[in-house]
Structure formats: structure tokens, C-alpha cells
Predict the 3D structure of the following.
Amino acid sequence: MTDQVEELERPAENTSSGDDYVDLTPEYAREILDALGDDDVSRAEELISELHFADIADLLGWASSSQRAKLVDLIRPDFDPELLTELDDELREEVISLLGTEAVAEAISELDSDDVVEVVEYLEEEDQKELLGALSDIERARVEEALSYPEYTAGRIMQRELVAIPDYWSVGQTIDFLRSAKNLPDDFYDIIVVDPRYSPVGIVPLSRAIRTNRPVLIRDVMDTENMRTVVVTEEQENVAHLFRQRDLISAPVVDDTGRLVGVITVDDVVDVIDEEYEEDMMRLAGVGEEDDLSSAIFDTTRSRFTWLLVNLFTAIAASMVISVFEGTIQQLVALAVLMPIVASMGGNAGTQTLTVAVRAIATRELTSTNAWRVIRKEVAVCGLNGLAFAVLTGAVTWFWFDDGLLGAVIGAAMIINLLFAGLFGALIPLGLERAGIDPAVSSSVFLTTITDVVGFFAFLGLAATFLL
Amino acid sequence: MTDQVEELERPAENTSSGDDYVDLTPEYAREILDALGDDDVSRAEELISELHFADIADLLGWASSSQRAKLVDLIRPDFDPELLTELDDELREEVISLLGTEAVAEAISELDSDDVVEVVEYLEEEDQKELLGALSDIERARVEEALSYPEYTAGRIMQRELVAIPDYWSVGQTIDFLRSAKNLPDDFYDIIVVDPRYSPVGIVPLSRAIRTNRPVLIRDVMDTENMRTVVVTEEQENVAHLFRQRDLISAPVVDDTGRLVGVITVDDVVDVIDEEYEEDMMRLAGVGEEDDLSSAIFDTTRSRFTWLLVNLFTAIAASMVISVFEGTIQQLVALAVLMPIVASMGGNAGTQTLTVAVRAIATRELTSTNAWRVIRKEVAVCGLNGLAFAVLTGAVTWFWFDDGLLGAVIGAAMIINLLFAGLFGALIPLGLERAGIDPAVSSSVFLTTITDVVGFFAFLGLAATFLL
């Protein structure tokens, strides 16, 4: 295999490659972009022709917008519409407008319905209409039906192309049917067995179908135990949980009467898993989901502004606590020096708890069943660390300011703040979840408000009481 | 379908169910645990018998350790070894010791090799030996070979059971072979085509094999374009990226001579994706990966202590900056009141940038190709928000303390700190990545040290210069 590669003089090839494409390394990308910069079109064309469409999608993401326009011109002749499914929403819109809706409309008629939905769902209405207009009537009806389901539900990620057969067929009949059928999905992994009402009653994994002798009846090989149907309005998050928990490869989708309307495959679910995680991570940091690398500076600024504004209010709230103790600080400036330590330790300990809780709620390891036990544990953990850091911080303070009582005060404040951090680090996401709100949203800003306010209040309050 | 459910009087059934199992809702779990608490074993047994093993695994996670012991006793008779693959490492160890290694050893001989590896890899050596001893020689050799590969590589997640055929076979020959073969994997999605040296040269997706007429030669239907081989020592993170980027369902794994040694399927990759995300999220919050809900209080406390200790040092560093300005604060206590606002806004704006960067590096949207453009953009975004919040905070300060100059000083400090926040929020993860360190590790502590130090220094320094 290595010899072969050298013969062909591939510019870059990494160890995991096995297909006929070159891996897109940053160096390879740099080479292409440099060729574009030098207006060496034929060199750039040659380099790009070695790339898989998924790598070209990555390259489009790394390029600046002027480079992107040049790249799109180069890929136009051999344009693979699947590339569009690999792009972020904003990037996709840009690439579609660079390609021109006419060219795109023609290309996407090759795609399965779930891919078409992915490409068009967030486009502006006019563009969407134009693209859908190029599809065949059947195909367009399928896509429009998909778009009629709410966002983030099974109906949006399923494909309509599927293989469904009755249970009285034999394996041989099934194979003959598949050999002669038109309009089958590009890839499928399970044959869905339906009853006369077109409700799924079982699945036959292809690996089982292909190993079974022709005369055997489908009803005798079908798997009813491991089939899970999904209702078309189910939230995609729950679909992802189901696939992950049951290690599914595909699942039939039914409407509310139980009729088979589509199938969801694991590759769509992997995308959902990515999205859901990204959402949690971003929400914990107060970043909007639409905040892609490719968003415009002003859009990004605006989307982050809201979170920072909320944070400004909570920071002012914490400052108001401090201002209550202005007199105390005036008498003992060491308090101003030390107070951020208490607040910061509380914030960090609380964030640890919060992150564990948000994550455990998402994976359903944390539910109402074990909520109290987890809360007790988190408070205990933070309390123990509070104790350890009370001793440490107390000792540092004593040594630094030569004031044992000041050390005792900061130690006590530390314990109090970390107990609150553990308690609210667990309570906040659980409370949001119970209220039907994503536990990642605004959790951290609530939490740091509490650890700042409690931290400043405990430290300055104890100091005012015992030191002056 | 609904009628059927009611007929059988299933205690809890949600809309997405379609198999013969009951969904494990928190209420259903509560019912089981209550039955256990009342020592109503037959009721608990009845309820549990309706559950899929993956749900029993969830239930074990939600239970307290005493409830867990009772649950294990109940599932012992019908124990499905696949359940063990669904548990977290610590929980798995506990359940195995409750079941007894002998019982487990017998059960796991039914599993595919990748599942056995998952069950035994983190057990103590003695337990591991005992479990492996119960396997057949071939099976044990397979598992031991897998364990000889480094952790987190393709070799650990692949299965040895696979279907490989030469390219000169016909489709008919292949189907006949599959019908008569023993020792095939439980499930497979692609047939791997190998050359005489047992190197993969292509794959035949089952959906293609089953649709092709018997006389057609494998070499004429095999897919060489979409086959990607993975080297056995490749890091699992890269494998996950490959599957996600190419929408793969399975990929052949080869050793360093190019010989086929195993196959990785998408369900294993979904687990890897979960792990990698969890790692990023946890590392950003300074939580160890071994910090499961089921970890003991003391272990959790210790694992979080280290991060808090690092944070204590950085908090003390920030305090030292403040202590330089003790005299200034004594003269103008308002500074002590306001200084946390500047630091906090910097920390939050920096965390937004940091999270976007860490995430983009993980998905490879951010590489050296576009690093400078992203850094410039992040600095611009933070700078613009710095400007907005300079005006806002300055106005609030002016109003609050009736001091316009103080408002100007806090505004200037805000802009400076947010510029640093944007710069280092992007630079730190990129620098760690370039140094070969996971960009999520310690990023946030570096960042908040910078935003605290810069925030306090800029605000108090400007105040000392212009206000006194």
C-alpha cells in the first residue's frame, strides 16, 4: 500500500488513510491557500482534486472569505452536494450563495431526503423555495413534510427512504425484492418488518438477513426485542439517548397512529450528539449556539453581549455587598486584598460541582431518584475541601499579615462559602431541570452570584464582627 | 400498538417505546427501589423483569450502595453480561464483585472481544486474570492482545470478529459462505475485501451485497472510495474524528504492516465521542475524569483538591497585585468595592473565547491555518464588548459614586482587561495544543489568573495615577 502511494506521488498521506484521498493536514491546506494567493489556479485545482468532500468542507471553514470565493470557483465543476451537509449553518448559506441557487438546486436532487432537509432548513425562505423547486414532486413533498415537524425532533433528522416488508415474506423473496427495487436508500442497515396497517413489528438486521437461507420466513428471523420505534415528534435529544443506550444503528420512526413514516440512522444521531454537547458546553460559558468561528465579528459581539450584561448586574450585586462594609475595609485594608480569594475559591469549587451535575443530568445518571444523595455528597465534598483550604488559606494569611485572628476569619469564610458552592452547584441545575429549562443555561451565572455574595458577605461580615 | 400495551398492563410506557421493554422513568425506578425498601422482593423482581439491560444499568447507577446489592441479587439469575459494558468503571467493578468473578467469568464468554476488553480493562490484575481464565484459549488470546495496545487507541476499541473475503469471489459465493460460517460477529455492516497479504482493499456494505445478483464478482461491487483503514495504534480521538467526518459505520483496522487485524464499529465510536466530550467539559472545570457520581466522597474530594490548590495560588497572586495598592485603596475605598467587577467581566469574556477555541480545536475547525484570523477576531469581539461595557460600567460608577473620573478609570480598565481576555482566551488553548497538551487542561486557570491580575492592576494602577 505504501509503495502504491509513493508511486502516485501523493503530497501528504497519513497513517490512517486507506482510501484514494489525501488527508487534509494544516500544511496541505496552507499549500492550497498559498497557491490561491499566488493565483496558481492549476496547482490549487490539482491539490483540491485529491481531497474528499468532507475535507473540502473543513478547508472552506479554515479559509478567509476571499479565499473561500476562489475555492468555491474551483470546486464548482465537480461539486458533490453532500459537502453542504458537512458545513456549519452560516458557512453553508455563504457557500450556497457563492455557488448560486440554480447549481445547488440541481445538485441536491441526488441527496437522500434527510440530507436535503439539513441543507435547506435554515436558509432564507426565498432560497429555500428556489432549491425545493428543482426537486421532483415526490422528493419535494417529502422534504416539505419533514420541514413541517418542529425543529430538533425526530421528524427533522429521519430519512423517508427505507425498506419495509411484510412478515409473511421469505428471506429469498426479500432478497429478490431488494435486487429489483428502485428508489432504495443509498445505505441501510436494517429491514423494517411492517404489519398490514404499516406499523413496524420487527427489524431484520442485514447481517442476519444475508446469513439466513432463502426459504426461511421473515417472521421467524425478525428481531422484535431490539427494535425501538421513535415517534416522529420525539425530541432529538431523547432519540440520541436511546441510540446511545441501546447501541442502535437505525430505528423506525412512526407517526402518532403508529404508521411507519421514516427511519433514523446512527450517522444522523452522531451529529445530534455533537450538537447537544456543544450546546451544553457553550451554554455553561454563556456563548450562543450560533457563535461559530465563521460568524461575523459584530454578530458574535452581540451574541456574547447579553451574557456579559447579566454578569455585569451580578458583579454589581456583589459590589453592593462589599460597599456595605466600606467602613470595615477602610480600617483594615488587608480585607480588600484577601476578599477575592474567598470568592474565587467558592466560584471554582461550585463550578466543579455544577459541571458534574449538568453532565450527569444530560447522560441521565442524575435524576430525581438519586438527587438528594448526590446533593449530600457534593456538599460533603465541598465541605471537606473547604476545611482543607480553610487551614491552608488561614495559615497563609496569618503568615502574610501576621494576624492569627484574620487567618481564622478567612478560614471560617472559606468553609461557609464552599458549603454554599457545593449546595447550589448541585441545586441550581437540578432546579432548572425540574422547571423544564436546560440545566446548562445560566447555571454558572446564578452560581457565581451566590459564591461572590456569600463569599464577600461571610468574610467581611465575620471580619467586622470579630476584628474591629 | 397502544391497545396492546394496555392489554398487557405495562406499568410505565413512554411514547418512543416499541420493543417489549418498559422505559425506566424516575417514577418507575422509585417504585422498584421502594419495593426493595419494603423487602417486597417479588414485586421488585416483577418490575425489573420488564427492563432492558441498559435500563437496569442506569438503575444500578441511581441506587444507593445497599440498594445496589439487593438489585444485583435480583438480576443474578437472568444476568445479561452486556449490562457490564453499560456501567461506569467504578460501578462496574462494584457490580462484578457483588456478582462474584466466577459468575461473571462464565457470562462474559458470550461477548464479542471488544466488549470483553471494555469489561476487564480497568479491573485489578487479579480479577482480570480470573475473568480471562474462563474464556476459551482463542478468545483469551484475542482479549490479551487487545490489552497489549496502549489505552485510548484503536486496538482497544476494535473487535477481532469480522468478515473478510477475497475479491475474486462472487456475491453468491460470499452469501453461501456467510450462511455456513461459524464464529461470525453478532452484528456487522460491511464485508471487508482483502488481498492475498490480508490487507483490506475495499469494503462491500451489506446493503449493497444483498442487492447484487449472485454471479457478480466482489471486485466489481466493492467500494474502494469510501473505505478508510485505521492503524491499530491510532488514537481513539482521531478515529472518532474520522468516523464523524466521513459518516462511517465501520472501518477495518490494520497493523503496521497493513494486515487486517480487526474492525471498529460506530457504536464503539459513539462511546469514544462521549468520553472525549466529557473529558473536555470536565477539564475546563477542573474536574478529574474519574470523578463519577458513584465515586466515594473522599476520592472525589481528593481529585478536586488539586485544581482548587492551583486556583488558590493564582488567587493569592491576584491578591498580591491588590496589596501593592493598599495605600490607594485606603484613600479611596470605592476602589475595593468596584475592583471585582473589572476582574469578573474579564474572566467571563475570556471564558467565552476560551470555550469557543477549545471546542473549535477539538472539532478541527480551528487549526494553524486560520489561527491568526481567529485570534484577531476574538480580540476584536472582546474589544468591542469592552467598549460597550466601559460605557455602561463607567456610567453606573459615575452615578453610584458621583465621580466622573472614577467612571473613566473603570471604563479604561474594562477595555484593557477585555482585550487581554480575548487575546489570551484564544492564545492559551492554541499554545497548549501546539505544545502537545490537551487545550482544555488548565486553560481556564491560566486565563483567570491573567484576567484577575490584569484587571486589578489596570484598575488600581490607573486609579493611583489619575485619581490621587
Remarks:
- Residues 1-17 of chain A have pLDDT under 50 and may be disordered.
- Chain A has 23 helices and six strands.
